[in-house]
Amino acid sequence: MKRSKTPDYCDRVVFGVPLVVSQQRHGQPLPQCVLYAMRRLRRAAADAVGVFRKSGVRSRVLTLREQLEADAGLLSR
Questions:
Q1: Does residue 64 fall inside a structural domain?
Q2: What does the pLDDT read at residue 52?
């Protein structure tokens, strides 16, 4: 019989963490960076068409992801 390993999210703060775990940690339904992005889009891009049509440059997306993980990790400690 194979034992299933419970996932460990200690090294992750935003990406790859289930929303339930994030809510238990921070008391908010979504990570702070996601809430900020939603507020920003609501204000700045309310009338824009096709905001999510074009994919980002992979290197830039990875850089932003790493920055968000690092910044969120500092705030949660």
A1: yes
A2: 77
